[in-house]
Amino acid sequence: xxxxxxxxxxAQEGIERRADVYLYSGQNERxxxxxxxxxxxxxxxxxxxxxxxxxxxxSTVYFKLGxxxxxxxxxxxxREYITNYLLSDPTGVxxxxxxxxxxxxxxxxxxxxxxxxxxxxxxAQNADLYAKAKGKIADTYFETKQYPQAxxxxxELAKLIKDTPEEAxxxxxxxxxxxxxxxxxxxxxxxxxxxxxxxxxSEKMAAFQFELGEYYRTNSNFGQAxxxxxxxxxxxxxxKYADDAEYYLALTYISQNKQKxxxxxxxxxxxxxxxxxxxxxxYNTLGGIYFRSEKYESAMTSFKxxxxxxxxxVLKQQIMSNLINICVDIFIFHDRSSCNxx
Length: 342
Prior knowledge:
Structural class: mainly alpha
Number of helices: 17
Helix content: over 70%
Distance between the termini: 69 Å
Shape: globular
């Protein structure tokens, strides 16, 4: 029909319907081609159709094009067409979806501030999407270390999704954000209530203890830090926080000049937590201890293992710097051949 009656309005609508099928079936390149064809078929004015109708038709295609480009990971074109939709029809039927999708685009473009602004424009009457946008806002504040704002957003989200499985997650994140914001007393007052209200949340309870330990460690209250890290290791050994707690406990011992206790933890870490994402950091810390003790061979072995056990570019750079430093020291004061292969 589209090819035979290309000159009719029905045929042009058919192009858009075909594009919709492409979009929903994941054939995004075909969808983009068809939507662009549909836009070009809409004239700036028409004898039969009113200009308002044409503008609305174009704006709808703009939104769909933005979705198709987003699915193609083409963030710039996605932003352009979604923005065009919002400019041409700011209160249109897809406006909430457009603001939400534009927020996701800005996250992909590493522009969290603009993402938050977009998510905030989703209307509350669109309850499900509004709650999803609130979650994105909270997560974005958290990831950008704006913890006071994150905690407030998480607690608001928990009220919106009350009596759902996600309520506990939002509340827990709010408590963690409070701890990271330095509002430890307020967070500690909420933890017993959380434990009472949400049963079987051992991962979250472990997270609270770990975060409190890290709060005390960064504030140089090492005695309290040891207490909380040890609690995680003892009471929540099956959680994903056990290896983190053991590593940070070792760091705390180093800060207390308890080198033996730190070494005992670090040297046994790899056998105890064979798949830990902290292995690179553990070997790097071990290498530093050996280096300061002038145990150069052990230090170099540890640093090399550290390189093999991390993909973190910042940590890799630090490890390489440590290897260079140890080689300079060996080159000047010891056997120069030890670093020839590096």
